[in-house]
Backbone:
């Protein structure tokens, strides 16, 4: 854990120097983080072109505002938050969003649920996203990375500077809260 | 009450992820890095040494300017009248690079056909905007213009005739 922290500090120092080394480190991060960020963005925008634009803006913002990273969370958490805000702001002001073909629902409700109403795929997907948004930021992120991206706890642990045990507990609580949210009305 | 052990997969069925272009993340990475590399490092103005030096130089010039000219009575310490023609010509000769030679030529050209010396600027601007400013032929000049020119050059008809004969 402490090792991860010091690695991240060294990484940020290199990144902030904006020299050849920093571009190399940045390039590695782009390769490593882009898939998870892309799918996070795409679940919000529901369109590839918009997601591509958003992802590009996110990385440019990260590159330009490295000084603003406070170090109070893992670096990935900071970028994930930027990606979420950028995606939400884009669909708010993006007129294209009304004319482009959007992705289908994220999930379908398995028929025969005793405590949950019969929702359509679109409805239950929106409800699921609202449930995730109601969670504390890190818990929501852990849920998304595990449920949608099927990321291993070991990988997530490195990414978020959190022990695997804590991540498992976090996911378990998130699932419980989401299920309660889905049966709420 | 819902069974707490129930997994998400017991309730919801995840849909297939939508397709993305082949090798999308590779090409995304390459395009992004190209963009980042093409952006030169932006240094805030206040951090640029050249800006500091220019600012200091400009301040010194302003101070010198105020010491040479008295802003209270708006009178320069050295008036044009105080300078001899010789001094002015020498200054122009030494600093010819600082002058627009075409402009000087046009002013001189216009001056020759000026009724009143104060009109020189007007003539100059007319000459500059007129497309055929250099197409004034001898035939277009009136006798009065020619006499005025000769007077200006301190020549007489007799002297010219003499020149032609020789």
Residues:
């Amino acid at each position: 854990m402490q090792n991860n922290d010091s690695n991240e500090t060294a990484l940020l120092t290199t990144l902030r120097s904006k020299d050849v080394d920093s571009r190399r480190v940045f390039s590695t991060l782009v390769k490593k983080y882009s898939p998870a960020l892309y799918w996070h963005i795409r679940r919000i925008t529901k369109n590839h072109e918009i997601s591509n634009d958003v992802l590009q803006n996110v990385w440019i913002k990260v590159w330009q505002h490295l000084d603003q990273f406070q170090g109070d969370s893992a670096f990935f958490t900071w970028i994930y938050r930027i990606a979420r805000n950028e995606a939400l702001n884009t669909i708010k002001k993006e007129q294209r969003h009304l004319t482009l073909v959007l992705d289908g629902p994220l999930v379908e409700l398995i028929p025969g649920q005793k405590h949950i109403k019969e929702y359509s795929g679109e409805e239950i997907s929106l409800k699921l996203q609202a449930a995730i948004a109601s969670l504390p930021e890190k818990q929501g992120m852990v849920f998304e990375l595990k449920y949608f991206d099927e990321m291993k706890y070991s990988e997530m642990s490195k990414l978020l500077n959190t022990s695997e045990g804590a991540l498992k507990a976090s996911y378990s609580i998130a699932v419980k809260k989401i299920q309660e949210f889905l049966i709420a009305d | 009450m819902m069974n707490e052990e129930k997994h998400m997969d017991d309730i919801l069925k995840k849909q297939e992820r939508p397709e993305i272009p082949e090798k999308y993340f590779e090409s995304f990475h390459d395009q992004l890095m190209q963009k980042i590399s093409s952006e030169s490092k932006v240094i805030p103005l206040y951090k640029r040494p050249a800006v500091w030096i220019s600012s200091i130089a400009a301040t010194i010039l302003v101070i010198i300017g105020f010491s040479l000219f008295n802003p209270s009575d708006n009178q320069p310490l050295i008036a044009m009248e105080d300078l001899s023609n010789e001094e002015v010509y020498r200054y122009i000769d030494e600093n010819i690079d600082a002058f627009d030679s075409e402009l000087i030529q046009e002013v001189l050209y216009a001056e020759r056909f000026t009724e009143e010396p104060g009109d020189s600027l007007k003539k100059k601007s007319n000459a500059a905007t007129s497309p055929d400013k250099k197409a004034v032929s001898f035939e277009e000049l009136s006798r009065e213009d020619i006499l005025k020119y000769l007077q200006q050059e301190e020549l007489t008809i007799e002297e010219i005739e003499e020149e032609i004969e020789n």
Notes: The CA atoms of residues 26 and 160 of chain A lie 17 Å apart. The mean pLDDT of chain A is 89.
